[in-house]
Every structure is written in C-alpha cells, then in structure tokens.
Write a structure and sequence with these properties.
Suppressor of fused domain protein, 5 helices, SUFU-like_domain, globular
C-alpha cells in the first residue's frame, strides 16, 4: 500500500488537452471519501495511488487496487475529479446545476504491468492510468457535463490511446447500485462513471443505434464482462452485429 511519487511526464496529452489556469478545489474531501468507499467495497486488497504529475487545472490522482485470487482484476479509480463541480449548461429548463463525479475502470489480472506490481507511470502499459487522469480533467478544462452517454474521441483524427491498441475513443456509462455513486457527509452524491473504450467505427455507429445497443454489443463481445480488452474485435465491423439490429 503506497502513494507513488510524481514522475516525469512523457506521454502525449490524451483528448488534445492543453494546460489551463488552476481552478479552485472546494471539495478535496470528496475524493478521499470515494477512496475510502472503494476500500470498503474491495477490502483486503493491496493498493497504490499514482500522483498526478501535471495537475492543471486540477490534480486528478489514480488509485490502483490490485487483483486477488477471488477477484482477479485490477480496479482503477480517480481521486480529485470531484474536488470541483461539473456544470450543466444553463438552458430553458435547466438553470446551470452542478454535479460531481469520479471515474473507474476495470483491467484484467493479466494486464501487462511489470511483475510484482512494480508499476511506473512511464511504462507504456500504464496508459489506462494516464487516460483516467486526463479524462477526469476534461470536464473542468472545457466546462462540460460528463454523464451517461458522453462520447469523446481521443483526438479529431481518432488517434489510438496506445501503440498496442486501435481503441481511440470512449463512451461514459454508469452502473446502478453500489458502483453507481457515493453519498458524501453533506448529502452530495459523487457519481461513479466508467469509460467504455471504443473504435472509431463504433463511435460513428453510436449516433445511429444509441448508447445502450452499442454498449450491450461491446459487453457481449467481451463475454459479458466490463473488463477492458484492448484487443477485442471491432463490433462495428462484425457481420453478426448488423444481423442482430432490429
């Protein structure tokens, strides 16, 4: 169990993010409460916290809960995205309400991290950690609301997230129950959001068939699992997928 020191930043910025001015962090305690919540859901796990080496406009750390024999998967979640609110755009029926969120992601136990869990942020295999840090910053950099169905390409040209995958975008989903949100002491709910990573063709298809149909197809292709599979088939290129569309 450890907090890993800041390391030199060598990754290109995901989602074409550029540094912006620091913003206020009125609720730093929310991230710590979410961390404690995940420890209660997944007790007896070893864990490490990777400190955000960039921190603009706000620091978003990532905790990694290591696999166990009973639960053979890594669970990653952000700490700090909820330190500041997201803002829903004001309109005719909405008056600019605020909301708070943190991100989570599940990796298979055989994800190619270093042996003995000696993980560095400079490792190529650590790109999901960088992805969560940058994604947690995104709504604050652009002052947008991130919730279920939020689609985001890595770049305008759909640049893959890493050299060992063609996944190049994502859609945000949210579970019900324990993994849906965390209640804070002041009554605020911090929503727990999960990115489902997509290929460009799947993102193009999403506007035609909807988020639910696409996510169901991706999960089916992964054997009913929400674990990230960086090598999975592209469902938008599978003949069976179009046969199943009503």
């Amino acid at each position: 169990m450890s907090t890993l020191p800041i390391t030199s930043y060598r990754w290109p910025r995901f989602f074409s993010l550029m540094d912006t001015l620091k913003i206020q962090r009125p609720h730093e305690e929310y991230g710590r409460a979410v961390q404690a919540y995940f420890h209660s859901l997944f007790p007896h796990r070893q864990w490490s916290v990777f400190q955000d080496p960039d921190g603009t406009p706000l620091a978003v750390d990532v905790e990694l809960l290591y696999p166990t024999v009973e639960e053979p998967f890594y669970l990653l979640h952000t700490i700090g995205m909820s330190a500041a609110p997201m803002h829903y755009p004001a309109g005719e029926f909405v008056t600019g309400k605020e909301g708070y969120g943190e991100l989570c992601l599940i990796l298979p136990a055989d994800w190619p991290f270093r042996k003995d869990w000696d993980i560095s942020l400079n490792d190529e295999e650590a790109w999901p950690i960088w992805l969560l840090m940058e994604l947690g910053r995104f709504p604050h950099v652009h002052d947008v609301w991130m919730s279920y169905g939020f689609l985001l390409p890595n770049s305008e040209s759909h640049e893959p997230f890493a050299r060992d995958t063609a996944l190049s975008g994502l859609v945000i989903v949210q579970f019900e129950g324990q993994l849906g949100g965390v209640s804070m002491a002041d009554g605020t709910t911090v929503e727990l959001l999960m990115p489902i990573l997509l290929y460009k063709e799947e993102m193009d298809l999403c506007s035609d068939i909807g988020v639910d149909a696409l996510v169901d197809a991706v999960v089916d292709e992964c054997g009913g699992s929400f674990l990230l599979n960086k090598d999975r088939p592209n469902v938008a290129l599978e003949d069976w997928f179009f046969d199943d569309i009503p």
